[in-house]
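Our consortium's second objective concerns turning raw sequence data into structural hypotheses that experimental partners can test. To show how far this objective has progressed, the report includes one record in full. It was chosen at random from the queue rather than selected for favorable results. The single chain below, 204 residues long, was entered without modification.
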Amino acid sequence: MHIAIAGNIGSGKTTLTNLLSKHYSWEARYEDADDNPYLNDFYDDMHRWSFNLQIYFLNSRFNQVEEIRASGKKVIQDRTIYEDANIFAPNLHAMGLMSTRDYENYVSLFRLMSAHLAPPDLLIYLRATVPTLVSQIQKRGREYENSIRLDYLKRLNERYESWIGDYSAGKILIIDVDKNKFADHPEHLGEIISKIDAEIHGLF
C-alpha cells in the first residue's frame, strides 16, 4: 500500500504524513527538504540553481519510490515525483528561471524514469489558497522560505489545479485545507481518516 500526499508549499503535507503514519502505524517517507544542499541557494538565486534543485529532487524521489515498492511495506509519502515534473519544473521554465535547454533535458530524464514507476495506490491532494499557504509557511518559520514570492505560489497553485484536474493514474482524494484544519482539530483529521478508509477498502 502506497499513499502519497501532494500539495503546494505550506499546504501541510509533512504534518498530514506524520499524523496518518501515527494513526495507521505505517512507515512515513518525508520530502528531503532540510537536507537538500540546493534549497538555500535556489531561493537566493532561482535562475542559477533551478536545474540543480530539480535534478536533485528527481533523483531523490525516484530512489524513494523504488525503495517503497521494493520494501513491500505500507507507506505514506510526503510529495510525489509527479509534482516535480508537472508543476515545479515547467513553472520555473515558464517564469524564465530555467533555460529551455535545461528544461528539455529534465523532461527527457523524467520520461525515462517514469516508465519504470508505478503510481501510488491513493493520491491525497491538499488544496489551499495562497493566504492559507502564506500563513502556514510563516508559522513554520523556515528561513530559506522567507523570500518566496506570492506570484510564485499563485503560479504553482494554478499548475496544481491543472494537474489534479487531469490526474487519471489512480484513486485521488482532495482535501480543502482552507476548511479542514487537521493539524489543530482532531475531528477534522478524523474526517480525512474516514475518507481514506473508504478509499482503501475499495483498493482490494
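The partners drew two points from this record. Strands lie at 2-7, 27-29, 75-78, 122-127, 171-176. The radius of gyration is 16 Å. Both points have been shared with the crystallography group to help prioritize constructs.
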